[in-house]
Amino acid sequence: MPLITLRANNISSEKIRNSLAESLSLITENILRKNKQVIVVRFEATDRQAQWYVGGAVKSDDQAIFELSIFITKGTNTDSEKAEWIAQAWRLVTEALGSAPHPNYISIQEIDGKSWGYNGLSQEQRKIQST
């Protein structure tokens, strides 16, 4: 039940959002072995007043800058799976938005199954019910 959030300075194209949502869901299903039916992808485009700073200086909007994060249940994936997901997600996002000489970050945030869930059940409760 991953929750993926992409925050970027320029993701206004619906075509790009649709393509990224599909591609990010696919690699999450294939690499992290998650059920595609419960993968949520959320885009947060920054508005005109939002500012991104790199190295203490304001970054102009002519180069892509983004932060991509995914929440997954702790202990459900290996280090190599997570590394592969980061590499593939990087490739997908930079192909869609363009790469830039400054840092763009990707994070995998693991949450204990007792501390998160969906539709009223924690992941731990779902695990117990499926056994």
Q: What can you see in these coordinates?
A:
- With 131 residues, the protein is of the alpha/beta class.
- It is built from three helices and eight strands.
- The chain has a four-stranded mixed β-sheet, with helices on one face. The protein has a two-stranded antiparallel sheet with strand order 3-4. Strands 7-8 form a two-stranded antiparallel sheet.
- Helix 1 (14-31) links the parallel strand 1 (3-8) and strand 2.
- The mean pLDDT is 91.
Number of helices: 3
The major pleated sheet works out as: 4 strands, mixed
Helix share, percent: 25-40%
SSE order, as H and E? EHEEEEHEEEH
Structural class: alpha/beta
Spatial ordering of strands, largest sheet:
2-1-5-6
Beta content comes to: 25-35%
What's the multimeric state?
single chain
- Number of strand elements: 8
Mean pLDDT: 91
Q: What would you call the shape?
A: elongated
Unreliable parts: none
Give the CA-CA distance, first to last residue.
18 Å
Based on CA atoms alone, the radius of gyration comes out at: 16 Å
